[in-house]
Specification:
Elements lengths: L5 E6 L7 H13 L2 E4 L11 H9 L2 E6 L14 H13 L3 E6 L15 E3 L7 H19 L10 E18 L2 E14 L7 E6 L14 E9 L4 E9 L3 E9 L7 E10 L16 E3 L2 E3 L1 E6 L2 E3 L1 E8 L11 E7 L3 E4 L1 H6 L1 E7 L2 E9 L5 E7 L17
Parallel strand pairs: 1-2, 1-3, 3-4, 4-5, 6-16, 6-17
Antiparallel strand pairs: 6-7, 7-12, 8-11, 9-12, 10-11, 13-14, 15-22, 17-21, 18-19, 18-22, 20-21
Helix pairs in contact: 2-3
C-alpha cells in the first residue's frame, strides 16, 4: 500500500559527474514516497525564480552538497546554486536536510543544521550507508507530516470532507454498456496544507481487455473555492486498467479554506459486465460466500456525510435482491468485513422503473474502509451476443 506522499525540492549539482550520486538519493526518495522536483538546469540568478517558486511550494528541501571549487586548504565549496537554494529555504522556514560530501565546507550552515549527514562518494552503496540514508530521509518525512498527517486509518486530517456524493452506474451505450463513476466532494482545511492527495481508479476485475481498449476517461472540475484556489491533476499512471495520480492545490490552502470539486470516470472495463468475462480466480471473499464483482468507495479524508449510489441499467435486468452491500477494512485489498459499520449505514434498495438502485448513506464513514456492493454478473443473452434485449 502506498504511503503518504510529500513534495520535496531536490537541490543538487547538474554536472554529469554528479549524476550517479543524485540518482542514488532520488531513488531513496522515490522508494519512501517523496516526490523530488527541481529546475531543469542552472541559472545566473540567485536563486532562479523558478527554483524559488518550487521551494516555496515544497514541504521540505533535500540538498546534496557535492564538491565544486577547491579551496587553498584542500577543502571544497558546494555548488553556488545549492548554497543559495539552502539559504532561501531556511529563510522561509522550509525544513531542510543536507547530505554533504566529505571535504565540503558547510560554512554558515553548520550551526543551523546539526543533523546533516556526510557521505563518501565511493561508499554510497554500502549497506550501512543505505540504511542511514533511508533513516534520515524517513525521519525528515515524519517530521514534515507530523502525527496529524500520517494518513493512517484515521484519515488525512489536514482537511475534512463536509460531504462526499459518489455514484456508480452501468449505463446502456448503443449495443453495449459502459461504467460511469461521478463524485462530488467538499473539503474544508483545518490548517495550512502543502499536501497533494491521491486519486486512484482501477479495474476491480482482471478482465481480458481487447487491444483496442482506450484508457479510462477522467475529468476533474473545480466548482468553487476560497481564495481563488485552483486544482490540478497530476496523472502518474493512465491505461485501460488504471488511472492514478495526485491532486494539487494552488495557492496552498490555509486554515478554513475550502474547495468543492467533481470528478467523472468512464470505461467499459471497470468491472465485468457478463459472466463469460469473469476470469478464473476472479473472486472476492465475503462472510457469506464468494463474489465475482465488487465496486464501491474508499474514504481517504475524514468525512461528515457520504452518499454512495449504485445503478444498473434496466436493460441489464439485474435485481436488487442479488446485490450484496458490505463494509470492509481495506489496505492493499479487502481485509475483513465490519458488520457493525454496515449496521450504522442507511441502506436502501429499490427497482426503480426496472433499474436496480442501491443507496448507502452514512454519517462519519471510516477512512481506510471500503463501502460497496458485490454481485454476480449475468449470462450474456444467447439470442444475439452483440445486441441486448429491450424487453421487461
Amino acid at each position: 500500500m502506498q504511503s503518504v506522499k510529500i513534495d520535496v525540492f531536490f537541490s543538487c549539482s547538474f554536472r554529469d559527474e554528479d549524476k550517479e550520486v543524485n540518482d542514488y538519493f532520488i531513488g531513496v526518495c522515490n522508494a519512501l514516497d517523496l516526490a523530488p522536483t527541481n529546475v531543469d538546469g542552472g541559472s545566473s540568478k540567485i536563486p532562479p525564480e523558478e527554483a524559488k517558486r518550487q521551494i516555496t511550494e515544497a514541504q521540505a528541501l533535500i540538498a546534496v552538497c557535492t564538491k565544486r571549487d577547491e579551496m587553498k586548504d584542500g577543502r571544497y565549496h558546494m555548488p553556488q546554486a545549492v548554497h543559495d537554494e539552502i539559504s532561501f529555504a531556511f529563510g522561509i522556514g522550509t525544513p531542510v536536510l543536507l547530505f554533504v560530501e566529505d571535504g565540503v565546507v558547510l560554512e554558515g550552515f553548520k550551526q543551523n543544521f546539526g543533523t546533516y549527514s556526510s557521505f563518501e562518494r565511493a561508499k554510497i552503496l554500502d549497506p550501512a550507508v543505505i540504511e542511514k540514508t533511508v533513516r534520515d530521509i524517513h525521519r525528515l518525512k515524519l517530521d514534515v507530516l507530523g502525527p496529524h498527517q500520517l494518513g493512517t486509518n484515521m484519515g488525512m486530517s489536514d482537511a475534512i470532507a463536509e460531504f462526499v456524493y459518489h455514484s456508480v452506474e452501468l449505463k446502456s451505450c448503443g449495443s453495449d454498456y459502459i461504467w460511469e463513476y461521478s463524485t462530488a466532494k467538499k473539503l474544508v482545511f483545518q490548517h495550512e496544507s502543502k499536501r497533494r492527495f491521491p486519486f486512484h481508479i482501477w479495474t476491480e476485475a482482471p478482465t481480458d481487455l481487447p487491444d483496442s481498449a482506450p484508457p479510462i476517461e477522467w475529468t476533474c472540475h473545480l466548482k468553487s473555492s476560497s481564495n481563488d484556489i485552483e486544482i490540478f491533476d497530476e496523472v502518474e499512471e493512465h491505461s485501460p486498467r488504471v488511472i492514478r495520480g495526485l491532486l494539487k492545490l494552488l495557492p496552498h490552502p490555509q486554515k478554513d479554506d475550502f474547495i468543492e470539486y467533481e470528478t467523472h470516470v468512464a470505461s467499459r472495463y471497470l468491472n465485468s459486465v457478463w459472466k463469460d468475462e469473469v476470469n478464473d480466480g476472479q473472486v472476492v471473499h465475503l462472510d457469506d460466500g464468494d463474489y465475482s464483482c465488487v465496486d464501491g468507495l474508499i474514504f481517504t479524508h475524514r468525512t461528515k456525510r457520504a452518499v454512495i449510489e449504485f445503478r444498473f441499467d434496466r436493460k441489464y435486468r439485474l435485481k436488487c435482491e442479488n446485490i450484496r452491500t458490505f463494509v470492509a477494512s481495506y489496505t492493499s485489498g479487502m481485509d475483513y468485513e465490519v458488520p457493525s459499520e454496515e449496521e450504522r449505514a442507511k441502506v436502501t434498495k429499490e427497482d426503480f422503473a426496472g433499474s436496480a438502485c442501491v443507496r448507502i448513506e452514512i454519517e462519519s464513514p471510516l477512512p481506510g474502509h471500503f463501502y460497496g456492493v458485490a454481485w454476480e454478473p449475468l449470462e450474456r443473452p444467447l439470442n444475439d451476443p452483440e445486441k441486448y434485449p429491450d424487453k421487461e
